[in-house]
Amino acid sequence: MPENVKTRVRDAAKNRCGYCQSLQKYVLGVLEIEHIIPKASGGDDNEANLWLSCRLCNSYKGAQTKATDLINDRAVQLFNPRTQKWSQHFTWSEDGIYIIGLTPCGRATVLALQLNNIYAVTVRQAWTTVGWHPPQDDE
């Protein structure tokens, strides 16, 4: 992948995972350029199909493009960080540690990508203690 494409994707994503919102400066390891629609599910390398993801979110996502919203028991598209606004589909718990899905897409994405897995929650607890989390801007 050309460096200029990587740079544009990083800039557009504000160096933040599109799913869990972790900032590059706090994540151990380089945020990955991920395929919103995975290649295994028919996606391509077009820049419009690329975004930043932490390794944990990207590994849980795998080749998924849909997941079930348990409230209405329907399969829905996973959150697309390039075309959808995070705050319309998710919010933070009052303590800033858990991601709460607000819409069918948000709820299904929280479960499918395991956004509240024990590792993420533990790290967010530490980040909130020092004032690094949750992000203060409306992404």
Instruction: Indicate the mean pLDDT.
Output: 95
Helix content range: 25-40%
Task: Give the overall shape, derived from the CA principal axes.
Answer: globular
Discrete helix count: 5
Q: What's the number of domains?
A: 1
E-strand count: 6
The major sheet is characterized as: 2 strands, antiparallel
Radius of gyration: 14 Å
Strand order of the largest sheet: 1-2
**Derived structural class:** alpha+beta
Contiguous low-pLDDT stretches (5 residues minimum) are none
Question: Layout of helices and strands, plus pairs?
Answer:
Elements (H helix, E strand, L loop, with lengths): L2 H10 L19 E4 L14 E4 L1 H7 L4 E4 L4 E4 L8 H4 E3 L6 E3 L2 H9 L5 H12 L10
Antiparallel strand pairs: 1-2, 3-4, 5-6
